[in-house]
Amino acid sequence: FFARQRGVPSCAFNSELEDTARRRLQLERELRGAIERRELQVYYQPKVALSDGRVVGMEALLRWFHPELGFVSPVQFIPIAEETGAIVGIGEWVMRQACADTRAWHLAGFDDLVVAVNVSGRQFEATDLTGTVLSALKESGLPASALEVEITETALMRDLERARTVLGSLRDLGVALAIDDFGTGYSSLAYLRDLAIDTLKVDQSFVRDLTDDTDDQAIVRAILVMAQSLGLSTVAEGIETPRHTDFLRQHGCTLGQGYLYAKPMPACDFSAFLNRQRRG
Ligand code: C2E
Ligand code: MG
Ligand code: MG
Ligand code: MG
């Protein structure tokens, strides 16, 4: 304000901030009603056994295609949806969609597929997540054993007591629980002992430079050894080269996902992908 009054042109930093704020408001506004306008879609990325590339399941990943803004990344709009609370409705929609699609794949003969659905901290804290999961399972006819919920460490740590209760009741239903982006969040490991967790997902930031970076190699090895000792299964994210797979396999990681195998794709493409795999 002062800068402008004195006739000094406002600096690039300020206008960048303004652009960011404007963009944020715009996304916040446009996100309202995005489901009704059918702008949201659930994509699926295959999760494979690293031993032979066999598909064992998939991760549901939300996509937003806006008629004017084009594709908006979940990295941009999920945090906004969390702040405004829109994630609650959107999250329920994703859960129902993912369960229904997976049930259809089961009926088509791929009946051992497990679907992983991302759940944000807000969904965890403020809503009846167990109720949402239960009704999505009932509505679709999908067995609880075919569903896995992914949650980040950071989201868990926001309210550990609540996490304990919710994770416990999801476990009672028979739903599996994975810690997403493992190693990038909270530093205490005590929660691994105290909470009902099945799987650790090795964050893609450790996988990216795995072939050359000895620090990343050490971290990944340590995570895999620890998971094994605790009886947790492991999934590596962001596998892009056969050498990533080799390293991970050698050190005991059994499952993975990444562009080397397939990018996230719409449900119809995933069906085609499954059929191709089955035919060999
Ligand atoms: P995430 O759950 O850790 O998902 C993995 C991300 O890595 C996805 O990004 C996926 O497309 C990307 N990815 C997979 N393979 C590779 C690879 O080989 N290389 C690289 N560079 N990236 C790979 P995406 O789809 O953009 O999603 C970003 C994040 O947005 C997710 O991270 C998750 O935290 C959040 N998100 C996505 N869908 C949902 C949702 O339905 N609900 C909630 N709460 N969050 C979601
Ligand atoms: Mg995830
Ligand atoms: Mg992740
Ligand atoms: Mg991530």
Automatic annotation (TrEMBL):
Name of the protein: Diguanylate cyclase (GGDEF) domain-containing protein
Species of origin: Insolitispirillum peregrinum
Keywords: Phosphoprotein
Keyword Phosphoprotein appears in the UniProt entry: yes
GO biological process entries: phosphorelay signal transduction system
GO molecular function: cyclic-guanylate-specific phosphodiesterase activity
From-to range in the entire protein, with total length: 297 to 576 of 576
Span of domain EAL: 24-278
